Amino acid sequence: MDHHNGETIFALSTGLGRAAIAIMRVSGSGSADILQRLCGKLPPARKAALRSVWQDARTQDNLLDEALVLWFPGPKSYTGEDGFELHLHAGPAVIQAVANALVEAGARPAEPGEFTRRAFTNGRMDLVEAEGISDLIEAETESQRKLALAQTDGALSRLYGAWAERLKRVLAHQEALIDFPDEDLPPEVEQGLLDEISALIEAMQSHIQEGERGERIRRGVVFAIVGPPNAGKSSLLNWLADRDAAIVSPVAGTTRDAIEVNGSLAGVRVTFIDTAGMRETEDEIEAEGVKRALFHVKHADCVLQMFAAQNVPEDVFPNAILIGNKTDLGSVPAKVLDTPVIPVSVRSGEGLSALKKLLEQKVESLTARSSFGAPLLTRARHKAGVQEACACLEAALQQDWPEMRGEELRLAMRALGRLTGHVGVEDLLDAVFGQFCIGK
């Protein structure tokens, strides 16, 4: 991504398509001159004003639209720069004409994430908060919205910042031990330092363990539906999806590839994956389907193992929810290998309400917080950073030389700093902000 922070950028911040209003967002040092060129006199800061939008307001050449205009002088703006918004009528011709006028006035179209990147560069937010903005835009469920909003509001940043402050104090004490080795510093200084390192390690390890819950909320809980052919897996998928997502047929082996359906349970995004029937087969395509089914079993958050009433399984996958289908054709055992069986009939609907309630409880248990109010880790990048910091602190405890311990503490500080973007993050920025939509 090529960045030109001195340039004035613009983008349509609302989606394309039929609508009443379209918001054109502009940011950069030339914003005041461009707004005056299009609309004449600047409106009062942060107050909506009705203005005529011209190709050139100085000559009142070519009226483009009548719009609400908002002027945001920096640094109290989203990006920290001067900027403005034009609330236009959303006709494609209007949008294109205003875009052309902005280019003619000296602005250029923004690149993905460039507005938020400028906000980060200008100190309006840190990297963790910026990622929260991206997650908030992508949020599809209530739990995703709450998680992203907490991150945008700085909950994770405050946690990492608090760790960094504690680590600064530890480093200060460590430097004192290094710089004044001949002074009779109280022995409790070093012991207090070691105790604080241990406490930080414990806090970080707890955060890492909670991280799986946060990542599940962000990406969704994945259920893999597995079992032998004709167990009713595709019928269950269709019921869960409330539509005919998979072909249902009495012919064994109809499903040969994984079929994914997204939905929501207990306010959390979920993905149900219907897999090929598991059996020995010489058909190469079906065998590949079985191989993929086993892959999904390994990577799913929960396995729904189905069997038909007349075909009780000999093995049960670890931590699987065992579903005995076709109770309208025969009875199913209460347990198989000490695993409780949920009796259902997808055809008649018997037991499906109880099954759905059980799935909701499973989703809640997989995403529930163990400590009230603690912000959840949400991304693999965050997890890796905290793990690195934790590993450095553990290494610091193993060092006998004060200088070596101090170096490990400094490495831990750098790992925390990269999380929020305060140190050594230039190589991360393109990857982070390139995922944003145009206009953010």
Automatic annotation (TrEMBL):
Residues given in the record as K(+) binding sites: 230, 249, 251, 254
Main location: cytoplasm
EC number(s) from the headed UniProt entry: 3.6.-.-
GO cellular component: cytoplasm
Single GO term (MF): GTPase activity
Compartments, record wording: Cytoplasm
Free-text remark on how the cofactor is bound: Binds 1 potassium ion per subunit.
Residues the record lists as binding Mg(2+): 234, 255
Needed co-factor(s): K(+)
Keyword vocabulary terms for this entry: Cytoplasm, GTP-binding, Hydrolase, Magnesium, Metal-binding, Nucleotide-binding, Potassium, tRNA processing
Binding partners and assembly: Homodimer. Heterotetramer of two MnmE and two MnmG subunits.
Protein name: tRNA modification GTPase MnmE
